[in-house]
Fold each of these.
Amino acid sequence: MSESGMSDKAVLSCRNLGKSYEEGPESVVVLSGLQLELHPGQRVAIVGSSGSGKSTLLNLLGGLDTPTEGSVWLAGEELSALNEKARGLLRNRALGFVYQFHHLLPEFTALENVCMPLLIGKTPIPEARQRATALLERVGLKHRLAHKPSELSGGERQRVAIARALVNQPGLVMLDEPTGNLDSHTAQGIQDLMLELSTSSRTAFLVVTHDMALARQMDRVWRLEEGRLVEA
Ligand SMILES: Nc1ncnc2c1ncn2[C@@H]1O[C@H](COP(=O)(O)OP(=O)(O)O)[C@@H](O)[C@H]1O
Ligand SMILES: [Mg+2]
């Protein structure tokens, strides 16, 4: 058992997680007393109404935002115990993140965007290009390698962001509404890729979605309700 009292094998866990915002004299509580634990290869969907705090939760779990209460462990490391540099290195090594809005680097091509996490991790350029190309092919973008984000459709950008999140083979991938911009055929391809990686590489997936067809294909569905997760 780790210091958290939770299993050492969890790729992600949090205890008593809370987030509130001060709005003048009032405090708006978005998340409160939230617990979760995610294991290698596990695929979980988080559903919940608009404004229930799904994006806030993913941002806290990914170390992009700071909780007002509680702690998060990513790959066994407590995020709040790390300085910004160490947290950045841990995120690059252990986590792939797909934002609700794609966050690709606008001056770089699709291929360069997907290479970026590998280059940060000091992978040699030829190997990085080869791995990034293979993943872009997997998400159906073989013919778009040299395009910049502004030259891609919304769904194509989303697929580049997914390839970028997977390229480092992280133990955990978090996705915020990954199929929102995709037609059903492409969305199914992304789902198949998630299933394959969760089995072959034990990659864990935590997916925020409105898409019940996607949610139902995960191992578990959790609903965010009144600041906490309940089994759906
Ligand atoms: N920076 C902020 N300041 C104040 N309130 C915020 C801020 N960011 C988010 N919120 C509030 O937190 C709640 C949850 O937002 P969000 O996590 O984006 O929900 P969801 O992703 O489930 O639609 C909303 O009520 C939103 O208004
Ligand atoms: Mg959201």
Note: The chain has one domain: 41-67+84-231.
Amino acid sequence: MPSLAPRIDTVPASGIRRVFEQAALLRQDGTDVAMLVIGEPDVPVAPHIGEAARRAWSEDRTDYTPNGGIAPLREAIRSKLRRENRIEADLEQIWTTIGATQALFQAMTLTLSPGDEVLVPDPGYTTFTMNAHIIGATPVPYQLTPQQDFEPDLEALEASITERTRAIVVNSPSNPLGSVFGEQTLRDLLALAKRHDLWVISDEVYEYFTYGTRHVSLASLDEDDRVFTAFSLSKTYAMTGVRVGYLVTPKGLGPTMRTTQEAMISCVAEPDQWAAVAAIVGDHSAVQDAREHYRANLEVAKEVLDAAGIRYLDPRGAFYLWIDVSHAAQGDVAEWALAFLHRERVAVAPGSAFGRSGEGWIRVCLAATAADLRRGLGALPAPAHAVV
Ligand SMILES: Cc1ncc(COP(=O)(O)O)c(C=O)c1O
């Protein structure tokens, strides 16, 4: 067998999968596992979205479409961007993608060459790092730590920029942290990107899930066409398996996007695009209900953690809780999460799967039943100093 391209071996494996797969095996054997490990909405997709997809199939709307998506979808996205995100985009800036996953890959492929550096959040969503490796670029982590209130340390960030740095990835609301960057932080990041002439790749897949704060889109603050934004229907409408997202590019990249999109995917499946139109223009009460469900779960979770004196980051967005278990993990939270799964039948994501700054922390998904959250979080060891 010939050898694979050497850089492929540098793509790190997911540190969440190990816990997930072992939890799935336990479940197969009939064990009741509290599944708090995967970032998957636990609410059903709204009926009108499924109906639109079924109608498309039954009317044989199953053809190739324009690379950027069917016109009604791009129009629907354009109105949504104006209304919800304060982004004025022309249709040539809007490209329907196979989830935000492909939008991110597109944006990184367009902006990075082998040997380039890209700044990625640490802890951060693993795909940012994986994509960089696939492209042959080097991911350079910027830390988000409790000492800095989980906001980027702009001085340290600036100091890590070299002449190979080409882009910075920003993810707010954040997976895994659940934090939301304030508008001033976004402005500062944009100013920094401008000073060093960097692209900004903004992942906003959790835009609809914020608690007590407003989501601000980086591209709405962009004055000189440097921001790519990856959006997704996956989390908003609980349709992760349908695979629709979109990339909003800076102006003037239409011809380039048409070519790269053609080579990568040609287009998103047509019935899925009709489902996306229905989702975006249709009734949003299911989104509202989902937000309330996550918020109610958050209250349950906080009550359990507060009672045990366990430290966590109070999330402002997404549907995750970032919890400090360093008192139990002894420097290896990946091993600890596996042992915890087998001992307590509770599956959580080890923080180290999201970068070095995640050591000692776990990510818990709030898209779960309140009962699983109570049992799962109730099984976490309390720190010795906790006064309860
Ligand atoms: C931060 C972030 N970006 C992107 C994605 C991928 O989303 P999609 O299903 O749209 O590909 C996820 C999924 O977990 C995510 O958490």
Note: The chain is about 40% helix and 15% strand.
